[in-house]
Amino acid sequence: MSQQFTDDDIGKRVVNADGDEVGMVADVEHGTAHVEPDPGITDSIKARLGWSESGEDTYPLQEEAVGRVTDDEIRLSRDPSGGDMTGGTATGRDDRTR
Questions:
Q1: Which of 33, 26, 24 lies closest to 4, judged by CA?
Q2: Domains defined along the chain, listed by start
Q3: Rounded to two decimals, what is the model's pTM?
């Protein structure tokens, strides 16, 4: 089942699998969260998330990168290329709260 974001998700922190902040939800359009990247994240993390240097202020959050959503944050447990944000290997999407 796909994650549908709402206006209630605007302002939530977006963090990687280690809990490091990579951005914040700035907008939601048609159920897709648009993230304003943290200025300190590396180009390699941006590339894993599909966020190119296109000059955009926000980037759509790819559904397959979302691990879980809490009241305060969106945690990325897996990236679209199949590895987790800590360099491990993904075996599938995990939507469970740990």
A1: 33
A2: 7-75 (2.30.30)
A3: 0.71
